[in-house]
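Check my protein:
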Amino acid sequence: MKPSIMQSASESGVTSTQLRPLLLGTAGHIDHGKTTLVYRLTGTNTDRLPEEKARGISIDLGFAHFDAATFRFGVVDVPGHERFIRQMVAGAANIDIAVLVVAGDDGVMPQTQEHLDILQLLGVQYGVIVITRCDLIDAEMRELVAEELREVVAGTFLESAPILPVSGLTGAGIEDLKQALCRVAAEIPDRRHVAVFRLPVDRVFSLAGRGTVVTGSVLSGSVSAGDEVELLPAQRRLRVRGVQHHGQNVPQADAHRRAAINLAGVAVSEIQRGDELATPGVFTPTTRVLAEIACLSTAKKPLRHRQVLTLHAGTTTVTVRLRLTQTLLLPGEKTYADLRLKESIVLAWGQRFILRSSSSQTVGGGRVVDGLPGRRRVRNLQYRCSGAGDALEETRIASLLEQQPSVSDSDAVQRLGLSIVDATETLRSMTTGKPVNVIHDPASGHWISKHWLRRLGMSLLRMLREEIKRQSPRRLLPRALVTSQCRSFDGAIHVPLAIDALVKSGELIQRGDLIGLADQQVSLTKRQREVLDLLLPMIAANERTPPTHRELYAATDRMNPSDIEQLLKLCIEDGSLIAVSQDLSWTPTGLELLRTGLRELFQIKPEVTLAEIRDALRMTRKHVVPLAEYWDAHKLTIRNGDVRTAGPEL
């Protein structure tokens, strides 16, 4: 039987580990009783700083918790003063339920509206409204305040939220508030588990005997003692010593729970509010994001193209310059923007943020549609962002593949808002019959657009045609050389896959480690091919001391020596053999093996004789004499009497 909302966690028999964690955040004008309300709910005074206690107002975030029914509510108490909006945004960034607090004897005030705007921009979907100090007003005044609130929240996520009168002084209405919070909590659907851990840091301090401790609300994933985490944007890996949840040691901290994390090997001075802990290797700090932004309908001025504002995301703030698709964005309007950040921070797909002006007014906000666009130019920002921000996973992937050749695992979370598993599943469904089809590249692990793969192949063919013309009469080039020549291509990581595709389509031919253009190759008869298939393996099998041409003539009676010599010349022209003398040819692989051995010999001894080269490379005099002369001619060695030294081309 399910526990009643009226029951406490202990009465219902639910243990603390079985309670569903949710984050609750207060919002409202300064001195409207938010901290007193939190005390009544939790028994904890969240004003911890001496200045807060002396002045009687909150100036930083406060944290507490309470259990009700099957829920454990972590409470984030935010300051209400306009000077502390940064702290308010940091506290509200990850909450599940908002509690908008309005004092009954004061009514709606400026920060009431601004906090409501911020909650709306941050995408909060659930909440309740609380009228405090009801012991100071009569029923008629409560109705007037409630009516005013209904007008203020019309059209927002709080439009249908319950309005509850309470008294922080007497405690009246607190139990009704808890029941209302449980009813709202029951409406929140279970979240899909995201394996990637993220925790924006909101506090950092040191404890005697433990060292550095950071606190924050776990955005996704989980963390346990012994885990390795990455400190961002510093991109520094750290080890977790221990984890606490509301003052209790716990095996791990999960999503939407408050957590205190004890870190090893880092000083308090090396971490600050706004930093983030995350699963290593998943996120990359950036100074540019693409986003959908909105100008508040209550803003006094429109947003301007190239305007400089302050961006608040999670617990961090950074200066940002707007690059809009239009000159002005009027109050109440939305558009897409290319945001250029003054400092590197971590932002991911779907993450919400707030924009504030130099006069400390909240003027707008938005959501990220690409958290790592890099330096690549976006020709049509409206088109790119509309695809990147689409609710359909396939559309987001297709939009990204119009901008770049392939999608990797690292793109999934930060750029697409997907888990690696979900991204892979969607990509597998896009191999055929889709507007954008992909193919998996096993070498890199990426998924490349077939359109980009064809473009890469065409670029490769053009380069290969020019290189073969430059190296005429060779018609085949080492595959490694071709790959190296393509290193500046867009999507160069996929050149091996493009080569394989071109070989399969018949546009390239491959012989061993050599490739060439199919339309530039000499057509061989069946007998010529059979003879070559006999002779080339004989040369390759003896990498250091290949047979002479005369020995090759004697190896078969299927062709006369002059015809065999013509076949060998074709092999030299197409690059599958390299002529060292009129009677000796090596494979490129065999010649490179000997060159490496020669280089190692010179590292031991700067001057060597021909006999020393012969012995070191395990060759015969018949082979080493013409090879040494070949090396002299190509400046791999320099001859000085009976000794040789390393040449400039070695």
Summary: Confidence is low (pLDDT under 50) at residues 1-6, 49-60. The two ends are 82 Å apart (CA to CA).
